[in-house]
Amino acid sequence: MSAWLPAAPCTPSGCVEPTRAATGVPKAVLRLTAVAVLVLAGVALLPIGRRVPAGLVGRWCRWIVRAAGVQVRVIGAATPTGGLLLVANHISWLDIPLLSAVRPARMLAKSEIRRWPVAGPLVGRSGVLFIDRDRLRALPDTVTRIAGALREGAAVAAFPEGSTWCGRRQGSFRRAVFQAALDAGVPVQPVRIHYRSAHGTPATAAAFVGDDTLFASLWRVVSARGLVAEVEIRAAIASGSHPDRRALAAAAQPPAAGDFGREHPVEDVRGRPPEVSAVES
User: Fold this and answer.
1) DSSP structure class, residue 225
2) Which residue in 128, 224, 242, 256 is deepest, having the highest Cβ count within 10 Å?
3) DSSP state of 224
């Protein structure tokens, strides 16, 4: 097991609670179809992905989440421009469009995707940075490539836990990707993602963990009623404010699950205080 590929103890049977308030099957099928159409449209545009305006990419990412029936609440300040390392905790496949909606970025992806028929070459053209997580010898080269993209002014998005967790527990941020930010001299933008029910209680319906299948997770999400994704854009960490990648990773690590939204006051991206932050349906 490499440093890129830690294991999480979360499993569908042990961590994911049954959806109590479920929407009807026809509505769930409609949501699933809408998600599929939006994803396929994005795949078709992958060869020209870098030429698509960032604002349109962000809206497309939010459309995917909203098409799945998930409301989105965003709190925090706008992200900096220029080279930026975006890091977030990892719970669900929904995290990817949510993080891209904060700021469109070059995603880190496992190298196996490059060998997928049709999808592999298309994803490669979109600017994805591939990681060979089973080979520790490839780690320095990967860090160098990430740092190069950051120096060119790109945003790079990563999930440093290296594995998905259910949201009630979380993993520690792995340090390697933070070395790239130090080498490139760019800030780190921590983002915290959390899922709640319509009543405000923590929800595990969005979790994609263990041996869960993608379809099972998709169906659980589109069948849920009142699922809310909370995205907290925390204060950016300036380059050079921490002496090494260990300290930088610790500073970017989100607080424990029970402390979501309590660590410090933040403002909504539209300038409203957090208690009246917008919920998009």
Assistant:
1) S
2) 224
3) B
